[in-house]
Amino acid sequence: MAAEKSSIKIITLIAADGSVFEVEPNIVKEMKTVQSYIDELDQNTVSIPLPNVFGNDLAMIIEYCKKHASEEETKEAKEEFDFEFVKRMKSDDKLRLLQAASYLNMESFLQFMAKAIAAEIENQSVEFVRDYFQIESDFTPEEEAELRKENEWAFK
Amino acid sequence: MLCSCIMLSRSTKTTETTLSDLPRDAIASILHKLSGSMILTSARYVCSLWWNICKDPRMWHSIDMDIKHFSFARFDFVSLEKICRYSVDKSLGYLTRINIDYFGTDILLQYIAARAGQLRSIRLYKCEEISDKGLREFVMKFPQLEELDIAFTNISKESLEVIAKSCPLLKTLKYRSLVGEDIEENDEALIITNNMHELRHLETYGTMITNNGIIAILNGCPLLQYLDLRSGFHLDMSRGKFYGLAMRCYDWKEAS
Known about the structure:
- The complex is a heterodimer.
- By secondary structure, chain A is mainly alpha-helical.
- Chain A has a single domain (2-123), classed as Potassium Channel Kv1.1, Chain A.
- In chain A, 56% of the residues lie in helices and 10% in strands.
- Chain A has helices at 2-5, 32-39, 55-69, 75-87, 91-104, 107-121, 126-133, 141-150, and strands spanning 10-15, 20-23, 45-50.
- In chain A, 26% of the residues are buried.
- Chain B is of the alpha/beta class.
- Chain B is elongated.
- Chains A and B meet through strand 2, helix 3, helix 5, helix 6 and helix 7 of A and helix 1, helix 2, helix 3, helix 4 and helix 5 of B.
- Chain A: One of its GO terms (biological process) is ubiquitin-dependent protein catabolic process.
- Chain A: Residues 110-154 form the SKP1 component dimerisation domain.
């Protein structure tokens, strides 16, 4: 309903590095963070700074949104696009895009990235996962020993 | 689209900060997509935040107790059953899907039945300790079951009837074949067509279904997409008959 009230024709998104993207309102529909911002305005154009998203990442997200917002594309074409979209990405890219999805509050894109990341860490060791996410274990050695003892079958 | 590409060079430091700051909901979304065995053996030991997220029973909604995740070189049947019960307990009723290779028993099925009210999918692979009766009693408790995969298990006609009547929402059914002395051609087809109108995927081995049985199934299960009746020696695949059947399948595919 809010979208109908709004008369905005063009939205300018400004990434953390100053890159500028002009998009139509239907492209940002899924970005709830952006949506809540423009719902309150009554003007033709609007500029929205997104200080937590880099230009490269925003460009990819917009590309994804354009494909998925398109009514001309078939379901198969969108699936094919999704497959290629994550295929060319490094794990760092995936994590940054996941974070951007969370910041922009894009539920389906967040789930899509989470799925791609889950597929990479499934069946991997604790050490692999820590390395992948660059996480340091914050268990004290005593705590960790306790956890392992409690479930010793997991580490046989 | 305007795109002035003035990218700041990102230092390793920035990337590190970014990655470690993944919000809890984003991490939870990833963990929710992992198998129960991955949560059990690896993910929850990553750090204290992950440990806490993994306490959420929803993270244990899917449990894979299969040989791919738990090799026999490391686990005997007793440990596997213990791990399985532990994971089921952790799911606190949120379990929707479970996979058990070899070590399943009637008692374990009873344990799961009492604790997994939301179960939608179960796969039992070569569980010789599960009896025909044990299986019947189990499925009777799951009217919302959508997938039953016992592709390597023979079942009685009585069991197939109980499955068909107890689980009207079944989308996938795989079993080996019907066994018993009271079985006649197309018994299976009749039970399936009369009850399983939601079926998408049917797989059996050495069935006694005939060509007419297939046609009955195609009529009774309008949503069917996959049919595998390998080694069905009651099927007439002679040229004329086969051609007729193939045409019928083609029409059915076109219509659906």
